[in-house]
């Protein structure tokens, strides 16, 4: 079976109740659940949560909540790998044969069913362990600067002071939307960012990390502008 796992714990600190806070008229979680269901890629779309209210919202949106996530996997320090491993193990222990699982973040309102489909295609075609969403940096990371303890600037890579931007390789970062993986990769908690992983490249205008109130407002502006343009 193919499994979509949407992690959505209840203890968000910087944006309280972030996973079910209304974003452009819907609970934030809704955008991820709807994209997963519309993609047609999954036998089950589940939400892994420790929170009863989130579980109720997820069920009303059309996802399933077959278990409540244990407390030891619900703190601020638990990473993605053990959460998805727990979900895959739960299904295997209940008689299901999981072949692929896709982690979809709950705060990914720009996610599209088509991108999820492209991720599955890459996972199958490239015979890799993972296929996940990435986007390019808007500026060459090799020319980044940092502010030191004296309040002065330093180049992170001073060897590139005289290198022209167009001569530098393009760099990418995690888009924070979805992570397709073989069940065996999740079960072994194989690192996502490394050999055996392939990218699914997204345009920058459909990527926004949402960790602060400022991020949230910017994402809503982007979302509304994008959908107004499409009408």
UniProtKB/TrEMBL annotation:
Keywords for the protein's UniProt record, in alphabetical order: Nucleotidyltransferase, Transferase
InterPro entries in the record: CMP-NeuNAc_synthase, Cytidylyl_trans, Nucleotide-diphossugar_trans, PseF
Gene3D superfamilies recorded: Spore Coat Polysaccharide Biosynthesis Protein SpsA, Chain A (3.90.550.10)
Keyword Nucleotidyltransferase part of the UniProt annotation: yes
Recorded superkingdom: Bacteria
GO terms of molecular function: N-acylneuraminate cytidylyltransferase activity
Pfam families according to UniProt: CTP_transf_3 (PF02348)
Protein name per its UniProtKB record: N-acylneuraminate cytidylyltransferase
Species assigned in the record: Halopseudomonas salegens
Top-level taxonomy: Bacteria, Pseudomonadati, Pseudomonadota, Gammaproteobacteria, Pseudomonadales
């Amino acid at each position: 079976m193919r499994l979509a796992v949407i992690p959505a714990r209840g203890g968000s600190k910087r944006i309280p109740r972030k996973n079910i806070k209304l974003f452009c008229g819907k609970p934030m979680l809704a955008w991820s659940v709807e994209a997963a269901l519309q993609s047609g890629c999954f036998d089950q779309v589940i939400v892994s949560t420790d929170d009863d209210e989130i579980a109720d919202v997820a069920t009303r949106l059309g996802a399933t909540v077959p278990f409540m996530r244990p407390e030891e996997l619900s703190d601020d320090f638990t990473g993605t790998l053990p959460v998805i491993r727990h979900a895959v193990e739960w299904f295997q222990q209940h008689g299901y044969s999981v072949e692929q699982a896709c982690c979809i973040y709950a705060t990914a309102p720009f996610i599209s069913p088509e991108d999820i489909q492209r991720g599955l295609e890459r996972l199958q075609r490239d015979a890799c362990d993972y296929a996940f969403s990435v986007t390019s940096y808007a500026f060459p990371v090799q020319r980044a600067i940092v502010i030191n303890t004296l309040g002065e600037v330093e180049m992170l890579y001073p060897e590139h002071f005289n290198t022209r931007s167009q001569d530098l390789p393009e760099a990418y970062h995690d888009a924070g939307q979805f992570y397709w993986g073989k069940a065996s990769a999740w079960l072994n908690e194989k690192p996502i960012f490394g050999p055996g992983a392939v990218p699914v490249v997204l345009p920058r205008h459909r990527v926004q990390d949402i960790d602060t109130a400022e991020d949230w407002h910017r994402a809503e502006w982007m979302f509304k502008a994008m959908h107004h343009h499409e009408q």
